[in-house]
Every structure is written in C-alpha cells, then in structure tokens.
Amino acid sequence: MNIQLNPEQLRELQLAELDGLKFFDDFCRNNGLTYYMCGGCLIGSIRTKGFVPWDDDIDVLMPRPDYEQFLKLYKEKNPSERFVLLDGTKEATYGNIFAVLMDTNHTMVKEYQQNMDMPHGIPLDIFPIDGLASGKIGRIMQYVWTMIYSLFRSGIVPKNQGGLLSFGSKILLGIFRRKGIRYKIWKFAEKRMSCHSFETADNVAELCAGFYFMKKVYPRSIYDGVTEVEFEGRNYLAMKNYDDYLKIPFGNYMKLPPEDERVAHHDIISLELNKISR
Questions:
Q1: β-strand partners of 230
Q2: How buried is residue 123: exposed, middle or buried, by Cβ count under 10 Å (0-12/13-18/19+)?
Q3: Which CA distances in Å does 73 have to 93, 187, 189?
Q4: pTM, whole model, 2 decimals?
C-alpha cells in the first residue's frame, strides 16, 4: 500500500533529496558537464527559490553528449560509496529508462521497484535531451524507437496508455524473455532514437521522460547557454531561456494549480530517512 506523507514528512524528504542534488552539481561543475534544473524544482526556484510544497522528487536534464560523458566519468571515477549510479545493464535495468543517482543513506521503496534487487534509496533522476528528426516521418520513427527502447529497458508494461498498447507490450515481453536479447533490442533502439545530434538539431525533446513529456517539442535555442537559479539556499544551473522551456509543458507555470492537483505524484510504499537501504 502506498504511504501518504504529511507536510512535515514531505519536507523532511525534500531536505534529504538536496544532498544528492548538491553532490551531482559539484560533480558536474568539477568535470565541465552541463545540466539543467527542470520540472517542478525549476518552477519552485522561480516562484519561491525553493521546493513546490507538494513536490516529492528532484529531476535534472542533460544534453545527450553531457549525459553520456557523465555516465562514463562516474563509472570510471566511482567518486562515492553513498551515491550509487544506477544505469541499465544486461543483468538489471531497475524499471527505469534513464540514469538514477541513488542516495543509499536512506531507504525509499517505490511500488514498481519493490521486488527488484537494488539499492532502495532516494533517487535523483537524470534525463537526457535528444535532438529530434526534422521531418514528420523521421520523428514518428524516432518515437517508435523510443517506445521500443522504453519497453525493453524497463521490462514493465506501461500503465494508463490504452489497452492495445498494453496488450502489445505484454506480447512482446512474453516473446522476448531472455535478458540478453532484451538488452540487445533496447541498445539498438536507443541508438536509433538518439541518432539526431543535440548540437545541430532545430528541435529537441526529453524522449526518456515518459509518454507525456516525450512528445513535447522544444526549440534547440532554448538551451543556448546556462544561468544560475537559487534553490533552497544554493545556486544551481538552468537553461538560460527557462521561461520559454517551462511554458511548453506547463503553460502559465507561475499560476498555482487547483488544490486537488497539489499532490505528490510518486507511489512510495516505504520511507525511512537516515536508514541505509537494503
């Protein structure tokens, strides 16, 4: 059963999540890597210089070249026993289609990961930004490759996406059961979906951020340059044209949503802060 955090518990979780963001920020700055605050945390930084009160996670974006370099450098340097990088391998994918920096000083178990053998800590989700194909047909194929990648990397049938898609996903996962063949499929699909250069594309997208966000089209010019934004007493990086970025998925992001929408969106079944994950 999912747990419901009261405001005090949610605030405690938010403050714990900052440790991972600070560590990630230091690592990126020290290694010349570009990232951007995004989503609810970026909105919170613009509105109040802190968390949106009902937000329960932190996400960041990275241009695909910086994302790949981050994965390479982090695996080579292995800079922390506490902050563990979870990225997909042949043996384990952890139900995600993006990299996660996991703070193992705490225990947090999400519903879809409860039976997975993995460090169950506080995650910092890291999403790549990919260049989009210029033509309509090319973009449709890019979305198809993204969906194939998402299915075989996560190994999870998508929820709330229509009966036909769920049925087809079950069939494909049933046919391709072995980890090795699933790994080959998603690695091939990943190459196809990310083959358009972030630097030279007219438009880009967050293809690994789920069905809603993957189809949002952002002009590449939004990411020309970075700026500093204050968030919970420290400066972090954001895209220089963050106003143009936020309006595309959120519209008038400075306006508060209706009260019934001011809720956390992640299904947490267990949370024990300051307790090492098992």
A1: 235
A2: buried
A3: 20, 20, 23
A4: 0.94
Query: With pLDDT > 90 as the criterion, what percentage of the chain qualifies?
Result: 77
| Sign, Cα dihedral of 85, 91, 95, 99 | positive
What distance in Å separates the CA atoms of residue 277 and residue 272, rounded to the nearest whole number?
9
Could you please report the per-residue DSSP string of 84-137?
EEE---SS--TT-SSEEEEETTSEEEEGGGTTS-S---EEEEEEEEEEPPSSHH
Q: Which of 126, 94, 121 is nearest to 107 (CA)?
A: 121
Strands 122-131 and 58-63 turn out to be parallel
Residue 93 in contact with residue 253, Cβ under 8 Å? Answer: no
**Contact call for residues 166 and 158 (beta carbons, < 8 A):** yes
263 vs 32: which has the higher pLDDT: 32
Contact of 146 with 223, CB cutoff 8 Å: no
- Tokens at 206, concatenated: 């967050």
Q: How many CB atoms lie within 10 A of CB 257?
A: 12
Q: How sure is the predictor about 278, in pLDDT bands with cuts at 50, 70 and 90?
A: very low
CA–CA gap between residue 238 and residue 79 (Å, rounded): 24
Q: Residue 256 carries which DSSP code?
A: P
User: What pLDDT is attached to residue 162?
Assistant: 58
**Rounded to whole angstroms, what are the CA distances from 187 to 149, 191, 238?**
7, 6, 29
Token output for 133? 């194909």
